[in-house]
Specification:
The N and C termini lie far apart (about 60 Å). This protein is about 80% helix and about 0% strand. It has helices at about 5-60, 70, 75-80. It is mostly helical. It is rod-shaped, with a radius of gyration of 27 Å.
Amino acid sequence: MDKRDLYDSFGEMEQQMQQMLDKMAKLRADMTTVLEKNAELVIENEHLREHMVEIENELPKKKRLARPRSQSHGKTWKNSMMR
């Protein structure tokens, strides 16, 4: 391999690495967006669950809806996965 080929190879590799870095930066930005949205949804879900409990507590016992077993003991799929 002569000097020119070696120089060209380094140039190509440098371009490929820059493209990869650009893709990684975009992926990081996309991941940040997804994580932020997920955090918002987790908070919203928690508020909705609290609101459901408030509404349920206001209903007379006869009109209360039966809650699924997993929720009746304060356990949810998310909580069980995080412990």
